[in-house]
């Protein structure tokens, strides 16, 4: 069985368990951790996760953050920064990056609040690798976790080991209260 098949199988198993509605927002987050080399394979098989969700009686909505930075940089008033950014990326200072982080968190909060049947819906986000270098997932999750009513599934290309997550295997990890879902045989924790 391929790693993506194992990840989908483990995801479907945890998605099919009864959902406790009396847990904190951070515990409503599932991080589907997969090898960064499998990004294209996962995107090709993304529909399998939607199907797995619906098979166990839940709804599905997805958000793609692949173009989040480019869309933000091209939107007013930040489009003024675009030319200087492309000339020298280090010119983009702390204030615009804080605005970008707030923009991403705002998009997620808005998407979570707009979900119909929210208590029974998995909102899946993917394309988070494209945020690397601009913001950390660990910084934005706490900004909107109180808006999660069903479950938030983050497709996370990286590593989960010893209760720490590392995006793209590149940074020091961070400990988060999310439920990890990996492609390891039989490794699903609740």
List keywords for this structure.
6 strands, 38% helix, Rossmann fold, single chain, alpha/beta
Q: How many discrete domains?
A: 1
Radius of gyration, CA atoms, in whole angstroms: 17 Å
Shape: globular
Tell me what the CATH architecture is: 3-Layer(aba) Sandwich
The major sheet is characterized as: 6 strands, mixed
Number of helices: 7
The proportion of residues in beta strands is 15-25%
CATH class: Alpha Beta
Helix content: 25-40%
Provide a descriptive summary of the structure in words.
This protein is an alpha/beta fold and 190 residues long. It has a single domain (3-66, 106-181), classed as Rossmann fold, CATH 3.40.50. It is 38% helix and 19% strand. It is built from 7 helices and 6 strands. The chain has helices at 3-15, 39-44, 46-55, 68-73, 79-87, 94-113, 137-144; strands at residues 29-34, 59-64, 121-126, 151-161, 164-167, 179-181. Strands 1, 2, 3, 4, 5 and 6 form a 6-stranded mixed β-sheet that branches. Helix 1 runs parallel beside helix 3 (46-55) and helix 6 crosses helix 7. The longest helix is centred in the middle third of the chain and has 20 residues, at 94-113. The mean pLDDT is 85.
